[in-house]
Write a structure and sequence with these properties.
The protein is α+β, with helices and mostly antiparallel strands. It has helices spanning about 5-30, 75-80, 105-110, 115-140, 145-175, 180, 185-190, 200-230, 235, and strands at about 40, 50-55, 55, 60-65, 70-75, 90-95, 100. Keywords: Membrane, Signal, Transmembrane, Transmembrane helix.
Amino acid sequence: MEAKYWIIFLIFLSSFYELGSKYYYNSNGIFYSPDLSYALRVRKLPNETIVKVQNKVVTRGYVYYDYNNCYYSQKDPKQFGLLVDSINVSLIVTTDDKRTIDICLKVKTTKSRNMIQWRNYMFIADVLSLIKIPILILLLFMNCGKLHLVKLLLFFSTIQLISTFFSDWLLIVGKHRFYDFVGLSNEEAVNKFGLPRTMIDGFLLFYMGTDLVIQFLTIILIFIYWGLICGKDFYFLV
């Protein structure tokens, strides 16, 4: 098999990886995996932190929360998966300056600009991952006009890499500033109210880094393919 077909095959693999990993990432990842979400065990909370489900105080179970909602589960999600028993949840704390904050009410009624932009950039990257696949199929079966398709593929891959980078950056900033968003300091939230730290998980950082590296290598492969189909004229065309 010629080298250019191997390159298309590798780009295919990277595109399917990006689509598959993003599907897993979106459906199971950022906030719903026990290791990646803001999660707490109710019975371990101090007296200053009150959890209500259906307007009744509860002392057992698990609460997960993100920038969109709060979720209550009676069973340990690490053993049984996240089984949502209720989304009518209140997570109430009273600060030293006598402010009463319902974290769940805050995330339900106020949208974070960072998180909105993060989702927009991720959506762009997802769509571009999908668009690249039919272009690769055309490259396999077309005998003419390949140069225009290669340029188009390079353009989409570059925009995808940029969108993914900004998406990852906004997610890191958004997770780090979650308690600022709901009106608490990190020190107060963690030390006084027993809430989890909101730093980015190591696995999530690994995923982000791997995804960016694969997208960058895909761009390099496209340049190599461009050189193979253009031969000596490649450098003049660039």
